[in-house]
Amino acid sequence: MPYIDAAELTYTKVRSLDMSRTICFQPVSALEVHGPHLPLGMDLYMARWMAEESGRRFAEAHPDWTVVQQPPLPLGTDELPLAGSMTASQRTVYGALIGHGRSLAKAGYRYIILTNGHGGPRHASAIEHACRKISKRYGVSMFSPSALALHRIVTGQRFAEVEQLLGRALTDAERNGLLNGEHAGSWETSFMLAQKPELVESNWRELKIDKPPVFKPLARAGEILINRRKRRGGDTAKLEELFDGIAGGLGWLLNANYGYGGPTVTYQGDPSVASGEIGHAFREVMARDCLELVENVTSGRQRAVDVRSIASDHAAIQPGFLAKLALAAAAILVLARWL
User: Fold this and answer.
1) 296-333 burial: b if 16+ Cβ within 10 Å, else e
2) 3-state SS of the chain: helix, strand, coil percent to 5?
């Protein structure tokens, strides 16, 4: 059951690996402000834990495979722009992941798993887009199970599993708290209370529900488009999710930089109902869902390029969207001039 730290490998050992039975885990998340109570490394802790726990379980189930753990890559975009957050452009994140993926593929790795604890939409889309690009270009299986697994949990789709692990029903306060959005809220505070409780500030029980202001002009535009589609009988679920996310994200950005909507907001959700008990259940469900996707791909039951979350659904948040939009606009202007 070889379980190897990539930083400890030599060139000779890399060349000796049976890459048909070697799987590589690469955590990717940046430092970011997570309320007044959680450490800046919250997302990085989660990404690293997913990689290490999924890798450990895979190694136990497949003693004839080698699991290689890459050092965490502290890089991300769409971080909350407050003192302590480390953020880069989506183009930078995407380019770095293309570079990492290319290097791993050229080293011979066929199965490359990117784990991520950050929910920024352009961050997650950069990861999934890079995974598909590398998979197609080099004929490898590079994918990220994280956004898909985390979305299922924070939207309440895994409440039954959480309650089964707890051995009790969630209280109304816990259910409401766990469904009130997530950034240093109930889920992440619970995770850190299970992971490293000494890093959680003692005031977390005093923090009630909070959320960023919505950018109203964009929210109103979204309502118009959504209502129009509803009148035509179309499905509006993804459109609603898109506008909720972008209007909230833009409102939060304006709040952090210019005070839009009132005092500075540093978290979303309800930390006060968190617990280490929920954190352990959260981690177990997350590990199971990640491992299931890893098993599906390595066994051939699912293609890596088909492992997609909502981060891959909307063109507006994909890498290169603005460049493509500008190119299309330029093409239209040129055509208009010649017609």
Assistant:
1) bbbeeebebbebebbbbebeebbbeeeeeeeeeeeeee
2) 60, 10, 30
Phi first, then psi, for residue 314 (nearest 5°) are: -110, 125
**Residues near 336 by beta carbon (within 8 Å), at least 6 away in sequence:** none
CB atoms within 10 A of CB 240: 16
In contact, 163 and 13? CB cutoff 8 Å? no
Backbone φ, ψ for residue 36 (5° rounding): -85, 0
In whole angstroms, how far apart are CA 33 and each of 140, 275, 290? 35, 20, 25
Query: No. of H helices and E strands in the chain?
Result: 12, 5
What stretch of H or E contains 69?
strand 66-69
pTM, two decimals, is 0.90
Strand partners, 26: 114
At 232, the pLDDT band (50, 70, 90 cuts) reads confident
Domains and CATH numbers, the chain: 3-153+283-311 (3.40.50.10310), 212-264 (no CATH)
Structure confidence at residue 307 (pLDDT): 96
Paired with 4 in beta bridges are: 68
Structure tokens at 319: 């890498």
Q: How far apart are CA 318 and CA 125, in angstroms?
A: 6
Element of type H or E holding 281:
helix 276-298
Q: Which residues of 96-114 are buried (b: 16+ CB within 10 A; e: fewer)?
A: bbbebbeebbebebbbbbb
**pLDDT above 70 (res 333):** no
pLDDT in tens, 192-222: 999 999 999 999 999 999 999 999 998 888 8
Note the pLDDT tens digit of each residue in 2-49: 899 999 999 999 999 999 999 999 999 999 999 999 999 999 999 999
Rounded to whole angstroms, the Cα distance separating 262 from 327 reads 38
The CA-based angle 309-312-318, given to 5 degrees, is: 145
